[in-house]
Structures are given as C-alpha cells and as structure tokens.
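Example complex used in Figure S2.
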Amino acid sequence: MLRAARLGIERGGVPLLQGLDLTLEAGAALILRGPNGIGKTSLLRVLAGLQPPMEGQLEAAPAAYAGHRDGVKPTLTVAENLFFWAETYGGSVPDALWEAFDLGRLRGRPGGALSAGQTRRLGLARLAVTGRRLLLLDEPTVSLDAASVARFADWLRAHLAGGGAAIVATHVALGLEAPELDLAPFRALAGARGGSDEAFL
Ligand SMILES: Nc1ncnc2c1ncn2[C@@H]1O[C@H](COP(=O)(O)OP(=O)(O)OP(=O)(O)O)[C@@H](O)[C@H]1O
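Predicted assembly (201 residues):
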C-alpha cells in the first residue's frame, strides 16, 4: 500500500530526515515516534502528497490524511459535513459511523458550535467516509477524552482488520499491535542540501 526508499524530507527548505525506507502492507499499521520538531508531520505531509520529497522514491495508494486541522465547515451541520465529504470522495456515510464516533446526538449541530473534542471526532469520522484504505494520521487523539480515544482505537483496529493500513504519529498509546519507528536515527545530517519546497504552505 506504501513503499518508500531512501526518502529524504525537508520543511521550508531545511532538511529534516534522510535515508528512510518504509513498507506498509494492507492490514498493517506503523507508529511514528520522535521528539517534537523531528519531522513527523513533515513526513506525513510528504506521504500524503502534500509536499514533494527532498530525495528518494515513494509509491503510495491514495491516502486520507488527518492533520492538525480538522477541516470542519462551521456553517454546515455535523451530518452535512459528513455527507459533503462522502460526496466529495465518492464514498458513503456508514450507519455504524454515528456510534463509532459518538456523533449521533450531534447530527444537527453546526460544525462551528462543537467543542474541541467533538470537532476532532467529526474530523476523524471524515476518514471513514472517504473510502480510502491508507490513513495518515497526525496526533489523531488530540483533544479526545479517554472514552473517545478508546472508541477511535476500536474503529482503527476494525479498519486494519478490513484490509486498511495506517501510519500514525502519536504521543499517546493507542493499544495497536503495530511496530514503532523512531525517527531520531534518520535526522538529516547538518549540511544536507534541500531541494525545492515550492509546494510547502
Ligand atoms: N511552516 C513552517 N515553516 C518552516 N519550518 C517549519 C514549518 N512548520 C514546521 N517547521 C519546522 O520543521 C521541523 C519539523 O516540524 P514537524 O511539524 O514536521 O515536526 P514534528 O515531529 O511533527 O513535531 P511535533 O512532535 O512537535 O508535532 C521543525 O523544526 C519545525 O520548526
């Protein structure tokens, strides 16, 4: 589902990571570890196709990327947000999703009137309506309470059991049986030269 060889990552023209080899098959997850600022978000952005790699080869299935911003449309209701995304991606809104993300009683509430945790639950529920099997998740549990973390972990396990795959940057243990990749040994050497980072915003 994803294969990268000798991947190098930069941000804003500054080299961050070098020499990364990654392979992810259907049904598998990988947890990214590393101190603040090492480049977890930047790596996920490259894997999602949001910015080009500095060097190396990358082949990846189309991914659903969940970054720090939830992308919730404030004037649309929770249900309208989900149906909008489902339509955009050509997917559907599974009935089980309302329970999985505890959104049933919030269906009619405008996105702009949700709490931080509720907004995050809606942002994560969006993953489920894209129909994309490869998930790239950047600190997905931020703002979630313990019950919501457990519910999300259950949903993610089911996604993997159904042939999905995920790469997750997280400082919170999700209880997944997944290998962890510490990015510290891949820190770019001082003086490594970056390429173009035109797509960076
Ligand atoms: N918009 C930006 N412009 C320039 N540099 C940036 C920008 N955003 C992040 N960086 C820098 O890129 C480096 C890697 O940041 P990144 O967000 O990928 O790290 P991270 O491992 O995800 O960190 P954290 O654990 O704090 O989320 C950091 O040194 C950061 O300061």
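The CA atoms of residues 91 and 130 lie 5 Å apart. The pocket of adenosine-5'-triphosphate is lined by residues 11-12, 16, 34, 36-42 (CB under 6 Å).
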